Amino acid sequence: MDTSPTSYDQVHYPSAVYRTTTPEHLAAIARLHGLDAADPRSARVLEIAGGDGLNVLAMAAAYPGAQFVSFDLAASAVAHGQSLMAAAGLANVRIETADILDAAGSMEGPFDYVIAHGLYAWVPPHVQRATLQLIDRVLAPNGIVFISYNALPGGHIRLALRDMLLFELDGVDDPEARMDRATAVLTEFGRPRDDDSASQAALRRAARLTLNKNRHTLFHDELGPVYDPKSLQTIVAEAAAHHLAYLTEAQAGGLFHGFPGEAVDDRETVRRAQRRDNDEVSFFHQSLFVRPGRHPLRVPDPAWLGTLMAGVPDSLRRTGENTFTSSAGDFELGDQMLADFLEKLIRIAPVRVPLAELAASPDHATAIFHLIDRGIIEPHSLPFPGALQPGERPIVSSLVRALIAHGVPYVVTLDHRVVQLSEEAPRRLMALMDGTRTAEEIAAEAARIGIPPELDVNLGLKQIARAGMLALSADI
Ligand SMILES: C[S@@+](CC[C@H](N)C(=O)[O-])C[C@H]1O[C@@H](n2cnc3c(N)ncnc32)[C@H](O)[C@@H]1O
User: Could you give the C-alpha distances from 428 to 102, 398, 445, 457, 459, in angstroms and in order?
Assistant: First the structure.
């Protein structure tokens, strides 16, 4: 392995967690297709090129009985993840420095879930091939694979912007100067003009959206040495050469890629999914793969839906009798029972509610499949993994406490959400909740170390429970 620093050591890629990569979510999507997947509570999970490994650390904190491995070429990112792992005392995860090119020929499996997020479009073809070789080498027979990538045809728009940026950045080598120059070019180009043609307007809009990105993400995603978006059908063909068959998409908006509307064969499923992409000008995929020959259901089946539980995204709010809003926009639900069901999910989050009763009605089942596709209902294969009540000696997830101890301005919940937490007093209070003190002892300790008395410990505990940060026992 070449141990020299990479561009990701030079400019750190932001730490992140991705809800759609969790085995718990992947098992739910597999179940919608009538497929069994390993129990996420005891599964073996591999993340390829997981950066600092925060994504698997968050899973490991929620599922102490499962085993997680993440590796990456960027030694500085791995060192950061290892330090978080040690602070959190997580014994069920390994974060390592390794090269995909080596792992493809040597890594030991099997793994029930394999994740490759944000990698495939940014590495050259031989690393793409090695990624698929590695997956083929370690994937268990009933394993589920998650590969995200920038897709065509939408990627053509990003390619056009990238060409423009690389032209303007010719000769600019310093990373900070590259980020500054790229921001200036995007800002100037992104300004709408009165006489814009349709293609100019579309590119300028793409430039404005790119400006919303984190500066370091921009440095790698737009200005890195490789940017190789591919169509869904190309990726499916590449995966097929490594004994992987297309299942569906993990992200909102992708459910019907795997449900083409009638029981067609795998080839026709992919053709129809590609037609959707062409129509939607898709630019991003989170494609799932399984071993060939598993025959996933291609028509939505309420019986399988009824085996799952439902949750809702943080952003969902009821705005009227039948109206709601979420990050996906405003919408209306004519069906009173469904509207009340959503209301209940919002009220009792992070608790998840079985879908069995609603799925028994064909109309409700159809509506729920569409709500899942729009990201308004989140399908779950398991109940919320943390505690719902503080108990006698409350325990905030050890990863949350480790992130606080590392001075990070956000925390990650046990249901894989990022919560911004920059205020000092609640951070210090949560650091005390390690299972060694009762609520009264926490209040006394808080007063002793000068945490303002208006911070009510019992109220705080309710908020922490609702945010999904209370762990079940001291070992998580
Ligand atoms: C765009 S970042 C994505 C990081 C993370 N998976 C995410 O989505 O947030 C790409 C990652 O791939 C890693 N990478 C690139 N080539 C690699 C290789 N040959 N072996 C291992 N990791 C590699 C980089 O170090 C970097 O952390």
Answer: 43, 14, 10, 12, 15
